[in-house]
From TrEMBL:
Domain of life: Bacteria
The family this protein is said to belong to: Belongs to the class-III pyridoxal-phosphate-dependent aminotransferase family.
Name of a matching Pfam family: Aminotran_3
Protein's UniProt keywords contain Methyltransferase: no
Name listed for the protein in its UniProt record: Aminotransferase class III-fold pyridoxal phosphate-dependent enzyme
Molecular function terms, GO-annotated: transaminase activity
Cofactor(s) it depends on: pyridoxal 5'-phosphate
InterPro entries xrefs: Aminotrans_3, Aminotrans_3_PPA_site, PyrdxlP-dep_Trfase, PyrdxlP-dep_Trfase_major, PyrdxlP-dep_Trfase_small
CDD domains noted in UniProt: OAT_like
Keywords, alphabetical: Aminotransferase, Pyridoxal phosphate, Transferase
Length: 466
């Protein structure tokens, strides 16, 4: 039956959402007509909307719900801590057990820092954006403290994603994070995306492509002046930029350039950390020894907001000297190391240990990667299937031979996502119509098959439409 013309277009909750909420990453003019999809509960790898329909979450929400959408142990950890100490801060040398225990746990699990040395200290924030913003401030403070006030420039990569604060949004290399925000600010630069499929020259091997990108970085540092360039930011695997797997020898060659010019390496492990790539850290998967490591998302399995910055002993010593000269290290957040998220994060790490998460992901990730290749590599609309561990992408192309991309004006990505919703799978289609695959790490092999079948059904429908 067709509803009458005067029937309300949205239910009460949706109407109130349109009236009062300002959503992130949303076209708000269009939103007034489309309204929200309201999610009411979660269980396992699925979330359920207010009509009761379930959706497999193919990207774990925003790459973050590693243990799925319900876990009694994490809920109990939060409740227990709320009963004991619901809040205290870490300003002025104050502390509490969850902050101390989590700091120790992260240092014990951390990869090797620069020169093969252990990381030294941990600073806590509330999001990946804040962690990377804090890292930038640490770098600037450190160089001031050791007498290098000109060494402040920061290098990111085109399509890299490091957050949305003014500073982290500037090192991010995404147009949507720059347009109309007056970003990037001065002193931030970007080098090429390390995507061999998309940007290699005809006949160029992965190794040759990596050498060319390392030379580009070297040339930029020399052109700007090594005494002015402070740090290079990189995700071991680019996430929001399209799930870009680095070409062979890339990080080996990039790190050699950075060491030559005494430029710090910041590894953004916000997506890759805690087993996603088949090792505990993406740095271990790709042979990176950074000066600073940032992490968030899977640190608490996304149950509560928390992020961390781990720094080398060299940086810590500089910050310590600078804080003495300035009278304090004047940086921090009210909720830095908040006891409740810290307690949940600690319980999350215990669960990862019990599940032997890197080993689990290495096995189940191999299954995912093969299943993706088998299901999509020969599809007439697919140009490349790529991935590592439990993260991957399916990139559309109108012509496999030329590796061409579809005109963004056709909006095939949003259409594919919409078809996915109809089939019962939450999708995130990124730049160049690349569908990200990054499900909860607890997903089973039968659930992987079901997820890919639903994504494939949506893709088949898209192929019929175009």
């Amino acid at each position: 039956m067709t509803p009458p013309d005067d029937a309300p277009r949205f239910n009460s909750a949706a109407a109130r959402d349109i009236e009062y909420a300002l959503h992130p990453y949303t076209n708000h003019k269009a939103f007034r007509d489309t309204g929200p999809l309201i999610i009411q509960r979660g269980q396992g790898i699925k979330v359920f909307d207010d009509s009761g329909k379930g959706y497999i979450e193919s990207v774990a929400g925003l790459w973050c719900a590693s243990l799925g959408f319900a876990n009694q142990r994490l809920a109990d950890a939060a409740y227990k801590q709320m009963q004991q100490l619901p809040f205290y801060h870490a300003f002025g040398a104050r502390s509490h057990d969850p902050l101390i225990d989590l700091s120790e746990a992260l240092i014990q699990r951390a990869p090797l820092s620069t020169g093969g040395k252990p990381f030294s200290k941990v600073f806590f924030a509330n999001s990946g954006s804040e962690a990377n913003d804090s890292a930038i401030k640490m770098i600037w403070f450190y160089n001031n403290a050791i007498g290098r006030p000109a060494k402040k420039k920061i290098i990111g990569r085109v399509r890299g994603y490091h957050g949305i604060t003014v500073a982290s949004g500037s090192v991010t290399g995404q147009p949507a994070n720059h347009k109309m925000f007056d970003l990037p600010i001065a002193g931030f630069f970007h080098v090429s995306t390390p995507h061999h499929y998309g940007y290699a020259q005809p006949g160029e091997t992965e190794e040759a492509f990596a050498s060319r990108l390392a030379q580009e970085l070297d040339d930029l540092i020399v052109r700007e002046g090594p005494d002015t360039v402070a740090a290079f930011f990189a995700e071991p695997v680019m996430g929001a930029g399209g799930v870009i797997i680095p070409p062979a020898t890339y990080y080996e060659k990039i790190q050699a350039v950075l060491r030559k010019h005494d430029v710090l390496f910041v590894a953004d492990e916000v997506i890759c950390g805690f087993g996603r790539t088949g090792h505990y850290w993406g740095c271990q998967t790709f042979g990176i020894q950074p000066d600073i490591l940032t992490c968030a998302k899977q640190l608490s399995s996304a149950f509560l907001p928390i992020s961390a910055v781990m720094i080398s002993e060299q940086l810590y010593q500089g910050i310590a000297e600078g804080s003495d000269a300035a009278g304090t290290w004047g940086h921090g957040f009210t909720y830095s190391g908040h006891p409740v998220p810290a307690a949940v994060a600690l319980e999350t790490l215990k669960i990862y240990d019990e599940m032997e998460m890197p080993k689990l992901v290495a096995t189940r990730g191999a299954y995912l990667q093969k299943a993706m290749q088998d299901r999509f590599a020969s599809h007439p609309l697919v140009g490349e299937v790529r991935g590592v561990g439990m993260i991957g992408a399916i990139q559309l192309s109108p012509d496999k031979a030329s590796r061409a991309t579809f005109d963004p004006a056709r909006k095939l990505g949003p259409r594919w996502q919409a078809l996915g919703l109809e089939h019962g799978v939450m999708m995130r289609v990124l730049v160049n119509e690349s569908a990200a695959i990054s499900p909860p790490l607890t997903i089973s092999e039968p659930e992987i098959d079901e997820m890919l079948d639903l994504i494939g059904a949506a893709l088949d429908d898209l192929a019929k439409e175009i």
